[in-house]
Amino acid sequence: MSFAPEHVETFKNVYRENWTAIKSFNGCRHVELLQANESRNLFFTYSIWESEEHLNAYRESELFKKIWGGTKVLFNDRPQAWSVDELSF
Fold it and tell me: pLDDT below 70 — which residues of the chain?
């Protein structure tokens, strides 16, 4: 997610205020926020969910709607998201 530089602290506060609720959401095994080293207005969330159904339940929840509503107005570029599979060797 890329934010206008003047909105970086606002986003970090939104995330900080909701982090406990996100990580406590049913099916969430892990969640973290990462900030790019050189582009300090670029962030990534990394989360692990028990299943796609759990992730979709979160995406449809009031919690997500509240967080997304407070976050999407801060973007300065289109956000991107990927779902991936863990590979074991």
Answer: none
